[in-house]
Every structure is written in C-alpha cells, then in structure tokens.
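Below: protein 1.
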Amino acid sequence: KSMSWQVLFAIAVAIVLGMINPKAAIAMKPLGDGFIRLITMVIALLIFCMVVTGIAGMEDMKKVGRVGGKALVFFLVGSSVALLLGLVAGLIEKPGAGFNVNPALLDTQAISGFTGQAQAQSVSQFFLHIIPNTIVDAFTRGDILQVILVSILFGFALSGPRCKPVVDLLKGLTQAVFGVVNIIMLVAPIGAFGAMAYTVGQYGVQSLKPLADLILTFYVTCIFFLVVLMGLVAWAAGFNVIKFYLYIKEEI
C-alpha cells in the first residue's frame, strides 16, 4: 500500500518490459511525460497561494520587508552554493560516463530555450524578464520568478483587515491545490513506469548503471547540502535542522 513500494514495483516491471519488448517500452514514454506535466501544472498556483497568504498573514509590513530582504540574500547565496556543490559532485563522479547514447540523436529542443536565454540576456534584460507582460502571462508561461514577483505584490496589497476575506479564500484555495497534488501523486507509479520503460527500451538495460550512479550522486549531494550546509544555517539561526526535517518528513 506504500507509495514508495508501488513506485519501486512499477520501475521493476518497466525494466522487465524494456528487456523483453523494447519497442513497446519506448511507446510508454508519454506516461512519464504526462506525469511531469501534471506536476508542473500546479506548481505556479501553489507558489502563488503560499507566498501571498504568508506575506498577507504578517501584520507588521516592516517586518515583512526585513524578512524578505534576508530571504532574498539567503536565496541567492544558498542557490549559488547549491549550484557549485552540484557542479563539483558532477565533475568528481561523472555520473553520465558510459551511458550508451549518441548525443547527435538526442532532441535538444527541450533545453534550447534555456541555453538561448542564457547566452542572449544581459543583466538588465534578466531583471526585466522577471516582470511579466500581464499577470495572467506569468501563470500561463509557468515562469516561477514572474509568479513570485506577482505573489509578493499581491501579498503586500492584501495585508490588512479589509482584505481578510480574500486571504481566507486563498488559504482555502491552497488546501485545494494540495489536494490536487495528492490526487496527482496517486499516479506516480504509472509515471515512473513510463519513464523507466522508455529509458531501458531506448538505451538498453546497461543504461541502468549510469542512471543508478546519477541517482546515488544526487542523493549523497542533497543529503550533504541539507544536513551539513543547511545544518550550519539552522545552527546560526538557533534551531535543530534534524528536528525540522522530522517535522516535515511526510512532505519530504
């Protein structure tokens, strides 16, 4: 009955299918892609509701400004450290080495938008990009930075007793979005099945070793970041990070 065991069982079945019938396994790719799209579908709305209700719920707006400033600095520094740690881990472990794939045959369209923006955007263009053309545009494009900007503005605008009904409505909407996430997670085994079946069918069972190396590298790096680096931050702030992780273990 455990979701984790269901996912592992689905992955095992997918590996067998990929070995026995690669053509049928490759055809399972839409199942994995569909699950990812279901998850990304709700992320922007979830972030909006949580940020707005979080800011609007703080009565002292000066305190919000101080907390927001610290949060921004922490976000920039923490993200930079995380990126550096991931880069070092990748260079040391080389988890993709030995993967049986011809790069010339890969579809690079999925990342072409990101690489193009990184090469073309100046600093001023980057900050202008954070401002959406319209509020709706931020959500339809799923640009998280734009969603956060809109959320912060709405959070400040909805602070105060006159806007409490709207804030209460958004709190209810937040619970509804979490409910949608719970429903989506019910099909996680199907998504895992589709993704793994495609991988084994397309690249062979030998692709599991570099894939396992990638997952192991990812987990070790994440644990180091969450326990050691975040542990130091939590210690400086005066609380135990392990107790905090135990408190949110279901979410994790």
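Below: protein 2.
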Amino acid sequence: MEHRRLSQTGLRVSSVGLGTMTWGRDTDDLEAKEQLDIFLDAGGTLVDTAASYGEGVSEEVIGALLREHVDRQDLVLVSKAGVRTWRTGERSSVADASRGSLLDTLDTSLARLGTDHLDLLLVQTAHALSLAVSSGRTRYVGIANHPTWASVRMHDLLSECGRGPGLAAVEVEHSLLSRGIERELRPASQALGFGILGYA
C-alpha cells in the first residue's frame, strides 16, 4: 500500500485508512481484530475513530487491541472531538467545542485508547487545537466536515504567523458520488499545504 506524507508535516499515513465507526456497535471485538489484521497485512497504518463513535466504545475496542494484539507504533491514530453525549435530557448528543470540553474529551479518548498521544486530532476550535499540541497530547491537528471557507480560516488561525501548530488535515466526504471537494477544497489544500482525508 502506498504511504504519503500528510501535508507539510512529518506524519506519514497509508493512502487508505481504516474507519472504526461501527466497532463495538455493529462490529464485535473479534471482527474488529480481523479487520485490523487484514488492514495491517495490506500495509495500512491510518486508523480513524472518534470519541462519539458508540459513545466511546470504538476507542475502547482499539485500546484493547493495542494492549493485547498490536504495537502502538504500527498505527497512526486519528480521533475526533467536538460532539459530547449527554446522558440526561431529551438530546442524546450536542456539539460542544468549548476548550474545556475538547481537552476533557481528548484526555478521555487517550485513556480509552491506552496511549499518551494521538497522531492526529480532528476538532473544531483553533485555541483548543493549539493547546492539545503544546501540551503533548497530540502531534498534529486538523478538522472534520467543514466547508472550504472554514477550513481556510482554521488554517490561518492555526498558523499564527508561523508560530502555531498549523493545520495538518481536513477530513471530508469524498467518493464517486460526492466530488464537491475537488472544486475548492483540493486546490486550497494544495495552495496552503494541508492534507485531505477522504471518507465515504
């Protein structure tokens, strides 16, 4: 499998990533282990999860595999924050991009995964992203499911005249049926130097 450098960072990722949204929900532990083995045998490294996948169960499944089956250095771990699940009230989840919530969610994700850092954290506010990098909890940061104008704005906010952590990647839908990113986001990523993680 081809491996690429993610934008202008030193992070190298496999050209295909393994999504884990169904792990612990529709995909049991044994199936998850089999999927991971097939992915690693094919040369894959990029494993994508989120704090909100299965209310954290996806990260727990990955954490168990890291403890019992695979070495941490064999994976490039990507997780996302910004949606918090509330156990009371009528709404089961809400967007919560406050700095405290994002950093608390990051710490909870690290505990579930059983690691001291992520390779890439995708969230929604520039200041919390900068703090996540400066505190050593993640190596690189990016955003997920933002329009092009917001991605460019986040790039500018995270660059801070060359002193900030920069925007490593934007994760967006990209498939044969959804090709809208090719008009604006792809040229913006090439001009500004951030990577694109496509999913469908």
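The CA atoms of residues 99 and 164 lie 16 Å apart.
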